[in-house]
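Researcher: Please predict.
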Amino acid sequence: MYEPQNRAEKVLAGRPVLPDPKSAERKFMNNGNSFSDSQQVLQRLARTGSQARLETFVVASPGARAAAWAVKVKSNSSYNVYNVRAVEIGEPGSLPIEIGQEMQAVNLAESFLQQGTLASGTYVLMCRVADKNVFYAPV
């Protein structure tokens, strides 16, 4: 089983992290954020790739709006571009409720040069990147 190696990985794994008084040189000037540990996690991902990581996470700051939301694929527009509609997840055992208007989103798991094959009715997590809506749903 994988065991987090440093402070940043432990925070990402949801484990409590106590301050280490010996690592003062690893801290930013006054806010206590660990820059070195975050760099190590990014370097490890760059070396090993993200194929083994099966989780998705969203980072939001206080006052920020949602950076990602659940959507339902309505139809294929062209190539790997789909018409999708946001859904609101309710109580366990209830179907998600479609809200808002249809919008277009790109499936990054499919070729940009061939017709998409993702089935209508599939639920995915969509993110806004620059001026595009994107999601990753392997077919």
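Model: Residues 22-32 have pLDDT under 50 and may be disordered.
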